[in-house]
Structures
1.
Amino acid sequence: MDISFSEQDLQFKEEIRSGLENDFPSHIREKQNQGIALSKDDRIDFHKFLYDKGWAGYNWPVEYGGTGWSLVQIYLFLNELAYANCPTILPFGLNMVGPVIYTFGNQEQKDKFLPDILKFNAWWCQGYSEPGSGSDLASLKTKAVLDSDNYIVNGSKTWTTLAQYADWIFCLVRTETTQKKQEGISFLLIDMKSPGIEVKPIITIDGEHEVNSVFFTDVKVPTSNLIGEEGKGWTYAKFLLAHERFGIGAVPASKVQLQKLKDKTENLNDAELNKNIAELEIDLMALEFTELRCLAVISEGGNPGPESSILKIRGTEIQQRLTELLIEAAGQYILPYEGPEGFDSNRIPAGPDYASESVARYLNYRKTSIYGGSNEIQKNIIAKAILGV
Amino acid sequence: MNLTYSDEQNMLREQVLKFCETNYDFTDREKILKTDIGYDIANWNQFAELGWLAIPFSEDNGGFNFGPVELTVLFEEFGKSLVVEPYLSSIVMSGTIIENSNCPNKKEILEKIISGEHQISVAYAESNIGYNFFDVVTAVDEKDGKLLLNGSKLLVLNAANSNQYIVLVNYNSEISLVLVDKESKGLTLQSFKTLDGQTCGEITFENVLLNQDSILAHGENAKSLFNKMLDISILCICAESVGAMTASYQKTVQYTKERKQFGQPISNFQVLQHRMVDMFIETEITKSLLIKATLQLDMNEPEASKTISALKVQVGKAGKLVGQQAVQLHGGMGVSNEMSIGHYLKRFTAIDAMFGNTQHHLNKYITI
């Protein structure tokens, strides 16, 4: 056993670090450091920056324009991004639909979609959850009926992240009503400009407009936008979720957040708070090493499988506890709060500078234990697949 | 970065597993606990024959020169069966100090330890100093050209079976580690059973006569040697705890599959499933920290001591959760002394209390 990274890996890390130091756009860096919400253009600029550095396809194979990096390199890359306080890479194109297209799509689809995903010329969103289908995703009802060269789609999707900016949506739709609910599902790519699509904002408890409802009324989708085979959508959906798992523990982001928490609360000299922070730091250290253990298993050609559910559960618990400690530290000064944009510079309420941001994060991060398969669903997975009960 | 065990390490694991399967089911253990000495001499001799008593020592001293990784493999397997033989006190604690001390006849002593015929215990705890072990009152003083030891020590593991004691003392206003024969004049011993069925002793020293060769280490050397002993010992009991957690959650899963209520196995109930998942997660998370601490100690990294404190905190919290929930999910059987499951809880409780409990190490973690 050996805990250290190889010379080449360390050199790789240095290259990423210096690339970020020199070229990370300063207007994004400033907003990130001040905890200000990013605009649509900021997000696009960030992804264009990744593309210009040759990093956009960080987890893609070389033949589709990716970097072909090893898992260790991907791990180090994502760590460096977090340490540099970069925004999160939007996963819908690069981590989700991209790998589905290059794995299950036909040549025409690869040529049409992959370059724009890499260059971030197209903004993608995910059409999975429905009002009646959350944890029981396979019960979804949005219907696609074949009509010569088109599918006619009717139904609705919900919790669609940043759909208000999206050019495309990938959707799970029901093309057949079958006895086994997983079998009649297909995977469709839908142009958000299609007539019959309506996007309505859902405002979350922090006041943020991040998620949406998307309604489909007789939306025409060319059959050439069907991925793989009709009725095999569930297989592709599961593949996509497996792709999503890695990095779901959000360890580097939590490390950055923990450091911020320590810096902000250092001069409070609150022994109880310091103890809570220390316990959280220990939990995070243990989680980070658990992630490395998973990484080691994959690098050896193995499959960590359901054990990675641990990363989702513990990672999100830690993310949430971090937000809780920050509002605890801010105490009564959290009361003035008008939304995620904070306050105008000419009317700032008294109290620590992190008070308003801490409320936004606390309320916003309640989502983490709910999305991506709720933590209860993750426990069901572990119970069944590992404990065998 | 490589986190796989070597073939040699896997073989050791297999060997210990096989030994425990053959010699250490719960009824075997019960019999051992009922004996006066509190462990099985035949088992100890077998440890010697299998070479396990030589694991951490250098080749010069007749050992295998293995490191923390092998020790944690051994202890993890011990933990699964709640092995009570005095490996921690005789080999890890005493062995570490003797091997790294100024002891003039260390080679000879280590040879006898490795062969299983000689045992030593470390006497460090006292009644009024808690976990601040260096605040010792027990002292060695020079009187008429003689070195005299006075004071008393408690919680000395396996004390009644040891031939010698390494005693943490104050000498010339500095910390010293001295080696004392059990048969010395002025030494009295009272033995107790511990909550988890092991043995410990209280030792009183009244004008016990020492010579210069008795001093194993003095001043800063003694302190750093004692801390080195603490680090490796904590690592070992944490590995033991991970093994005990693994056994606890696995036995609990098995039991809930067999136990039927309301016409079905109680493992069907989601509230119990999620509880067992929590036990599993705590075990895996603790194992991660164990591996990290082990490798850092193996590489002599300066961060190792801090990680070991983090590990002791995690082991304390996880052991409590896993141990208590294992008892809870076994229902009445969990609190029955005739079932193994409650004995794991006792061991978790003892492990947390040893070498600084959760709160102590959390504070230490903050100040390091």
Note: The mean pLDDT of chain A is 93.
2.
Amino acid sequence: MPAYLARRLMESILILLGITLVTFILLYLVPADPARQIAGRSATAETVQNIRDQLGLNDPFFMQYWRYLTALFQGDMGRSYLQRAEVSELVASRLPASLLLMVAAIVTELIFGLTIGIVAALRRNRPADHGLMIFSFVSISAPQFVIGILLLYVFAVKLGWFPIGGYGSFAHVVLPAVTLGFLGAGWYSRMMRSSMIDVLGQDFVRTAQAKGLGKARIILRHVIPNAILPIIAMIGIDIGLFMSGIVVVESVFGWPGIGQLAWQAIQRVDIPVIMGVTMISATAIVLGNLLADLVAPMIDPRIKTK
Amino acid sequence: MKKFLLTGVAGLALCGQMAAAEVDENAPMGGNMIVTYKDDVATLDPAIGYDWQNWSMIKSLFDGLMGYEPGTTTLRNELASDYSISADGLVHTFTLKDGIKFHNGRDIVAEDVKYSLDRVTNPKTRSPGAGFFGMIAGFDEWSAGKGDGLSGVKVIDDKTVEITLSRPDATFGHVMALNFASIVPHEAVEASGEDFGREPVGSGAFKLAEWSPGQRVVFERFEEYHRANLPKLDQVTFEIGLEPTVALLRLQQGQADVPGDGIPPAQFLQVLNNPAQKDNVIEGGQLHTGYITLNTQMAPFDNVKVRKAVNMAINKDRIVKLINGRAVPANQPLPPTMPGYAEDYEGYPFDPAKAKEMLAEAGYPDGFTTELYVMNVDPNPRIAQAVQQDLKQIGITAEIRSLAQANVIAAGGEADQAPMIWSGGMAWIADFPDPSNFYGPILGCAGAVQGGWNWSWYCNKDLDARAAEADAMTGEENAAARIEAWKSIYLDVMEDAPWVPVFNEQRFTLTSDRIAGDSSLFVDPVHIPVNYDYIYSKDAK
């Protein structure tokens, strides 16, 4: 196990290094000059040149990349070109909000997804099953922007149950979490349904029935715990999905997370901020996957860590 | 309203009314106002901030020597009690008012003026506004990093500062009213370093009370503000991160007073048709022109007949309808509210048949294929499609290149890349209400360089010389002749037709029932979306 963990950690670091390189190359190739974004439209060519010199944008690619990496290993993510603030501070001030939203969304999608999947499996091929599967199909296909605005209009504006966007209390987190969790709920309900149907057909379930156990007991003690295993492993992978959804959902609900920060940075070619946000999201995704792989054998001994 | 972010242009939608506004000095004091924005505030450092969102915020936090009468484009003394110019137009002497203080309680002295001007022009500050101060003596040396400040700025005593120019410049008063010329306390700048933009200390009507990134920025009244009975409001809260659509919902529920990003285009007609809201919509002009650049150094647009033909092919009325009438058709570079606008000039008529004839005369009877660059944010791609259809009528096939703002700007700055660019979302709003501001960077030779903003790559040395002459005409007695000189420059530009001027955008501001003030304050030329200092709350006693 420790050897496995060490190997996986090394792999993760290599992956992250690869991501910094790819992102850096992409930003280097983009045909937009950050110095001109900083200089503004009234600047002279000399001013732009001076800014390029100060930021080291005239240096060869590998020199720029090396400088970024060495600073990064010392914990320095640089300063935003446009806001002039430390990137680490900008990201740190946004991260808690994004993490809170992500946890709330995972809880939401599990509650909805698992419940729907279980009910659909137990009512297999009956109207309830068909109805729920249509719902899950819609939730997978619907654009998050539309769902967000719709939920805002109905539950915040018309019914007044929740605030119209913003951040601060428990009431603020409900609608964005539901919007973000909606997509995952659709996936999980489908996976849970087929996983349940799988388990229901297995020998040990028949044995349990033969022993004369009550139906509720069989479902709760034997079927669900077995059916849920593959789902748990999925949550880690899900983090990648959230990172893309978070940009949209944060902008609809005015949620002060890193999605909002990333969006503005991209608009204005603020390279240090783009790099910082990419690094943080990549780290979250890599850690999520690692965690999923580590947790899976603990809850299901059939899976071995090799 | 359109987002002119980085280029932004500084917000300066300087609009219309040249006459002084009726500002109610006795309006009640107290209360608060909530303004919503989608984007977080980039910075509140007056040397750095150059987008239309932070431009007016900075105006309320900081003061310069000069400013504008509220709701107008009329210059007035701000921190200066007296401003005099020598006979040759080169020496400008400012005397500071008595009893003016920074938010930290310290008295403002002449040394602060020098410190602030040296700071904004210091190459290490990397200010996007440094170039505006090019007329001050010693600018070239200092901006190259030589010496220890602008040699042209001299402190005479605690109350007096003397600024010597290297050339007479009629726009200097406006330059000293720019945010970039705001007076900052050196001790606060030195204490905060690069973070001064998050911890601003100025002398404006409001001071910063709270900044929660991505959530809200709160301004509160500065009790020792140098103008009596101002500001009217105790507090202004900027709620950040709200989509314009969501902001509108908040306003309808009474949870916001002004949607800072304006009325979203998709909801524009709905708001105008809503009896409860339509009376709260205030319309004003702005110093903006949207245009199509024709690259005069790329064939076939190097032929003036081709450029004239394109000018006659574009149906501007249809484009204005496309954006729900939020603009007026244009026929010259200057917008109607800018001094120097030629009211009797008729421009090129919309006449596809004649355009086709002219194209044949130029040697393109069957038209040609070209590219039209456009920023990829609505409504700009739709406008580009309308232009594409109009060009098709005279046989020109234009392929649309719809890109992010920064990429279009980069393409325009290369001599041989973009044959045509629709300027929407990028250019051009004046930085200050003077006709010269529509020439240098976008039509003069200085802008026709790699990385410049003269995307037509139009360079007429004769007009450049006339422009320099016009700007040297300082003094009240020459003001009218100077405006006439500029007017004829722009009409001669149109003879060469480097642009198709398409429309001048109008500003539409929506407010709640809770706040009030003279209507000019809601379309204030330099304060977008509203003049925070003079608006008052009906809740105040």
Note: DSSP finds 16 helices and 20 strands in chain B.
